[in-house]
Every structure is written in C-alpha cells, then in structure tokens.
Specification:
- The protein is α/β, with parallel strands linked by helices.
- Helix 1 packs antiparallel against helix 3 (about 210-234).
- It contains 3 helices and 6 strands.
- The two termini are about 25 Å apart.
Length: about 230
C-alpha cells in the first residue's frame, strides 16, 4: 500500500503576509493616483472657468481670496521701479530667463507684486537682461489674480531693476508687507505694459494619474498571480 506524501511549503504564512502587504500597498497607490487625478481635473475646470470670465475691478475682490484666483482683474495705480526683482530659473521655448516682478501700489493703497512676464537672460551670468522700462505716473493694468502660494517658496536670488549686481535674498511678502496675492500682467493703459511673453498658465490636462491608478491595480494582480504560482510550484 502506498501513501500520498504532501509537500509543505516553507514560510507559507510569511509569504502570504508579504503578498497581502504588497497588495494593500498597490491598492493604496491606486487610490492615491485616482484622487490626484480627480483633484487635478477639478482644478483645471476651475481655472478654465475663471479665465473665461470677463474682467472685474480689483476693488470688488473681497472675502475668500482662493475664490478669485485666476480671475482677470483690473485696477489703477503706480509701479515702484525701485522694488523690482527677477525670479531665476524660468524658461520659454527652451531659453533660460527670468520672471520680472515689480511692486505696484493701487489707488486703494494696496501694495502687491505684478508679474510682468518673462525676459531672456543676458549673455553672461553677470549681464542683466533687457527689461522694458515702465511708464511714469498712474496707469491702468489688467491681469490674472494669483495667490502668494503660487510664488516660488524659499529664498531666491534677484537682480535689481537697474542691473547694479546681485542683491541678497528677498522675500516679497514678509519684508515689504505686500498683499497675499499678485497679478500676472496681461495688458495696460500703456502699450509698453503688455508683456512680450506673459506668465504661463499651468498645463490644463488631467495628466497620467488615471493610467497610473490602473497600473497599480495591475501590479496588485501580478502579486496575486505570483503568490498562486509560488504555491503551485511547491
């Protein structure tokens, strides 16, 4: 009489536990990518809706500022040419340059930064870029309202408006007590105010998040298949 001999898989419980942990991680990754995709789609919808609205007067902006971000606003006031910085590491069509930010004082005595667009860097690191001179006196401007959270965080080097060399790190909000928003300039009462290259909108696509979510589910399926295959080979 013969007896059937069963082969016991070594570390079976441990392998199953590891597989379960990997599956949970993959499902968590899928959920994370899915929610990122949903949030990005919602953000894009808000931006598209607000940039399509007609301009409003800046003085009418009140209450919760995030409700007005990307809205086109108009105001009047004067530029402070002594308070101008160039944000580095900005690119346009593959060319290195700067975003020009100049302090603006509105007729309602609100100080905020105006992003006057992109300019190409100078020929050398010490050569300041060519920045269009600002008109004197009171001007009217139109641009997109942006929150200060849209500005780069941390410290950055800047070139002063007159190109007299590098200045120390400059924080527009804390040192100069500006508003908690800034404006991407689109046009003004003087033709020189219209930027040759305006501040770019973010990429309004949903991105690959949904595809990544499905990819994580596929990885979870591979873990299940691998665990079954290991079990069967024993």
């Amino acid at each position: 009489m013969t007896s059937t001999q069963k082969t016991i898989e070594p570390w079976a419980l441990f392998k199953t536990l590891v597989a379960l942990l990997l599956i949970i991680f993959c499902l968590w990754g899928s959920q994370w990518q899915y929610h990122r995709g949903v949030d990005r789609h919602a953000r894009n919808a808000v931006i598209e809706e607000r940039i399509a609205k007609p301009p409003i007067e800046l003085i009418t902006v009140a209450g919760n500022l995030p409700d007005y971000e990307w809205q086109t606003v108009s105001t009047a006031g004067t530029f402070d040419t002594d308070k101008q910085i160039l944000l580095r590491n900005r690119y346009n069509d593959g060319k290195y340059g700067y975003e020009v930010l100049t302090l603006f004082k509105s007729s309602e005595n609100k100080n905020f930064w105006v992003d006057r667009g992109w300019v190409e860097a100078g020929a050398t690191a010490t050569t300041p870029p060519v920045v269009t001179p600002l008109p004197q006196g009171v001007v009217s401007i139109t641009g997109r309202l942006r929150l200060d959270s849209s500005l780069p965080r941390g410290s950055f080097f800047a070139l002063p408006g007159k190109g007299e060399g590098l200045v120390s790190e400059l924080n527009a909000q804390s040192q100069l007590d500006t508003q908690k928003f800034y404006i991407d300039l689109l046009s003004g009462s003087d033709t020189s105010l219209t930027p040759e290259v305006t501040a770019q909108l973010p990429e309004l696509s949903d991105g690959p998040h949904m595809a990544y979510a499905l990819q994580w589910i596929f990885f979870a399926g591979l873990v299940v298949y691998g665990r079954i295959l290991i079990r069967r080979t024993r």
